[in-house]
Amino acid sequence: MKRVPVGRRNLFAERRRALLGVAGVGVALLMVLALDGIFAGAMKRVTAYIDTSPADIIVSQRGVKGMHMTSSSLPLSAVEDIRRMKGVSRADPILFETNSLKSPKARALSYVIGYVPGGRGGPVTITKGRPPGPGEIVLDESAASKLGVSIGSDVSTLGRSWKVSGFTGGLTNIVNTTAFVRFDDYAAARGTTGTASYILVGAESPAGAVAREIEKETGLTALPRPEFSREEAKLVRDMSTQIMQIMTIAALLIALAVIGLTLYADTLARLREVGVMKALGTRTRRLALIVLSQAAWMAGAAMALSIVLAFALAAVMSRAASNISIEVTAVSIARVAIGAGVVAAIGAVAPLARVARVDPATVFRRQ
Amino acid sequence: MDDVAIRAERLEKVFGEGDVQVRAVRGIDLEVVRGQVALIMGPSGSGKTTLLSMLGAMLRPTSGKVELDGVDLARLPESRLPDFRATRFGFVFQDFNLLSSLSALENVQFALNLAGTTGRKSRERAEALLRGFGLGHRLSFRPEKLSGGEKQRVAISRALANEPSVILADEPTANLDSKIGHEIARLLRNAATEEGRSVVIVSHDTRLKDIADRVLWLEDGEFREINEMAVDPVCGMAVERKPETPHYQYEGQTYYFCSPEDRDEFAAEPTKFIPDRG
């Protein structure tokens, strides 16, 4: 049942107009994909410290299930209590807060983590230099670059100055970075004694069961690491959802305007031909399919263009800005494709209404 | 069996109401048998377009009926009219009215698709028709790349694609030069003679009288006698020989015109419009 593809022919008959329309919609969809990708990339890095931690369970103050914009305080004595528990291989305390790193050149928002040297709370990799000694700090290399500091430079945080001893990687996102100092230095800088923020626990038995046992014995909150990571991601996502939705809707509205205007302009330019088609015996339903197929082709071509551009943008960004990573996922593509489909259908409404009103007898009127 | 393909009985069309009421077509009776070419002529505003629209099932008459192959189009529900137009009528227009984004082949295929012929079958049929009209080398050309004569041949191929009972042609030679106009007229004549189609032509072009079996004069929405007709030497239109028609005496002969402007133009330089004296 192959019919002449009138919708496609109409769309691409005027290549320049079609190209401009597809490019306009493609860029709007790219905005959605890029926003989604930036968000997905940021989410991945927001939980990077937790995800790369060798801990199986993370213990926090009762009721605390994340690190972002959160404060947790628990007695240091709990570390020993947990270490003695069955199924626990080790327990390492860390101190944590969100603070800013300052250099003479710039400042950067940072998670600052105080960990016990030789324990599990420090940086997983040291890309350059060495772990922090007394009065020293390890920075993420992207943040160091932004701050304009190198090994041996001074940065200040927690109300004092620190000498940079080394760099780690993969812990800077579009919002913040992560820095590491020694546990004792952190405690001294903050004047805290006998407390920790979190305890990173290694488990010999299944983490879920051990975590439940810790909660039962200590009255603290203990979550297996993947669950803690999910809770952290959820918190950040919940905080960002509204702004992401607003930006996505704005981009889809731009796509809608471009599709709608392009289709409507094309329909107006072809009203006489619509009359001819009706005179020849085309049903309104078939005309509707022609308009819809035109919209679908436009959205489809724009979608393909936006995917190519999104991957290109992701590649460029990974080289140009190490703190921004764009993750173009299949879920994101599917979501944007559905959005494009809806936008195309809505964009076709006005042209459809116009087409339905055309009188076939107009073909006998002189142009 | 009744050999009449299309029949109009007491066909009437009234637009508007009260003071602004216009009776565009007034009780017209018309029968066109298979294989016949009927030429309807008349001045602008005489109701030709309205009549053609009603004959082509695009406009409902106020009263009277239009029968095509025995079916009263005026009584058919709106939903059935598109299929009727697609399968029983072929349309040829003054402005060709080809779909600009489609090739010559696709324009003909499109009409076939409307009647349910799709895919390879539609392609082969369209190709055969176009080749038959000498357009084998223009199959993939879009209308903008075709000459006027080629466009009209594509339009006639499209009109014949579904083997309709009736071909309705609106000024089919108006935008064509004399030679191509003759060729198009011949094709329409052949459609009637060789394929048994009824052809109804609405035109100002007096040359089409040569191929017509019947010539009808439509004026003020009614058919009139056509025995006293003259040709306006300025525009070539057929006009009635009657006292109220603008006319001009020159060297003992009376010339008739479709408008006072044409008469004045003629009067300024008659030899320009009389071939053997120009």
Overall pLDDT of chain A: 90
* Proportion of residues in β-strands of chain B: 25-35%
Number of domains of chain B: 2
Q: What name is given to the CATH topology of the largest domain in chain B?
A: Rossmann fold
The tally of beta strands of chain B, per DSSP, is 14
- Overall 3D geometry of chain A? elongated
Provide the low-confidence segments of chain B as ranges: none
Key words describing this protein structure:
heterodimer, A: 367 residues, alpha+beta, ten-stranded mixed beta sheet, two-stranded antiparallel ribbon, 12 helices, 12 strands, B: 278 residues, alpha/beta, Rossmann fold, four-stranded antiparallel beta sheet, 7 helices
Could you provide a short overview of the structure?
The complex is a heterodimer of chains A (367) and B (278). By secondary structure, chain A is an alpha+beta fold.
Textual characterization of the structure:
The complex is a heterodimer of chains A (367) and B (278). The model of chain A has no long low-confidence stretch (mean pLDDT 90). Chain A has helices at 6-13, 15-46, 48-52, 77-83, 141-147, 183-190, 207-218, 225-269, 271-280, 284-320, 330-347, 349-356; strands spanning 57-60, 74-75, 88-102, 107-115, 128-129, 136-140, 154-157, 160-168, 177-182, 195-196, 198-203, 221-224. In chain A, helix 2 (15-46) packs across helix 10, helix 8 (225-269) packs parallel to helix 11 and helix 8 runs parallel beside helix 12. The longest helix of chain A has 45 residues, at 225-269. In chain A, strands 1, 3, 4, 5, 6, 7, 8, 9, 11 and 12 form a ten-stranded mixed beta sheet that branches. Chain A has two domains: 6-46 and 235-364, no CATH class; 62-219, no CATH class. Chain A contains twelve helices and twelve strands. By secondary structure, chain A is an alpha+beta fold. Helix content of chain A is 54%, strand content 19%. Chain B is an alpha/beta fold. Chain B folds into two domains: 4-224, P-loop containing nucleotide triphosphate hydrolases (Rossmann fold), CATH 3.40.50; 230-272, no CATH class. Helix content of chain B is 28%, strand content 27%. Chain B is built from seven helices and 14 strands. Chain B has helices at 48-55, 81-88, 104-114, 119-132, 148-160, 178-193, 260-268; strands at 4-15, 22-33, 37-41, 63-68, 71-72, 89-92, 166-170, 198-202, 214-219, 222-224, 229-231, 238-240, 247-250, 253-256. Chain B has a six-stranded mixed beta sheet with strand order 6-7-8-3-9-10, sandwiched between helices. Chain B has a four-stranded antiparallel beta sheet with strand order 2-1-4-5, with helices on one face. Chain B has a two-stranded antiparallel sheet with strand order 11-12. In chain B, helix 3 (104-114) crosses helix 4 and helix 3 (104-114) runs parallel beside helix 5 (148-160). Chain B starts with a strand and ends in a 10-residue tail after the last helix. The mean pLDDT of chain B is 90. Chains A and B meet through helix 1 and helix 9 of A and helix 1, helix 2 and helix 3 of B.
